Amino acid sequence: MTTKTAWNAQIDITEEGRKVTADATLIGKGGERRLVGHGVARCNPADQNDPAIGDELAAARALSDLTNKLLDNAARDIESHTHEPVKGSLG
């Protein structure tokens, strides 16, 4: 038997001058929110401001934060089922 579940990810990016913030939201079935990761990128004053690079960096950092939170949740869920600590890395 095959079961298929869809999760959606949404990335919201806000640019304020030379600072970009991103929120990556993992949305589960039924539209309920699961997890949110955050990321920030700042342009060095000595560098030319390219908003696309800031968007990419902030989004990547938000997705990385979201990944870490999802792995932490998975570890807690495993521990609650096995009643043993997770050893090693899940990532």
Automatic annotation (TrEMBL):
Source superkingdom: Bacteria
InterPro entries attached to this UniProt entry: Rv2632c-like (IPR015057), Rv2632c-like_sf (IPR038070)
Organism: Streptomyces hiroshimensis
Pfam families reported for this sequence: Rv2632c-like
Official protein name in the record: DUF1876 domain-containing protein
